[in-house]
């Protein structure tokens, strides 16, 4: 199951954590922030504990985050090697910007 935890806000930004649990044990999470004016959601960190990787938990977290985002794109940021494998499988990239040799991505989870 997943659960949203509000972590606070400051000026125009609110911070949240979406957690995945199995038998009351946290097995993964997404830390994200939301601009209170534009409503844009930016992922700060997606983490699935090693023992639970490759079981669809990251995908489930991303899909639940897209439900929160509604019809808006999510800012994925610069992707790690694992992120570069996951995101193209589960999301449609709608925008990519290269800054100083790093690609930053926005998109929607399918």
Walk me through the structure.
With 110 residues, this protein is α+β, with helices and mostly antiparallel strands. The chain is built from two helices and seven strands; from the N terminus they run E-E-E-E-H-E-H-E-E.
Quickly describe the structure:
This protein has 110 residues and is of the alpha+beta class. It is built from 2 helices and 7 strands, in the order E-E-E-E-H-E-H-E-E. The model has no long low-confidence stretch (mean pLDDT 91).
Strand order within the widest beta sheet: 1-2-3-4-5-7-6
| Oligomer description | single chain
Distance between the termini: 19 Å
Largest sheet: 7 strands, mixed
By secondary-structure content and strand pairing, the structural class works out as: alpha+beta
Summarize the helix and strand pattern as letters. Answer: EEEEHEHEE
How many DSSP helices?
Answer: 2
Portion of residues in beta strands equals over 45%
Low-confidence stretches: none
Radius of gyration, taken over Cα atoms and rounded to an integer in Å = 14 Å
Mean pLDDT: 91
Q: Label the overall shape.
A: globular
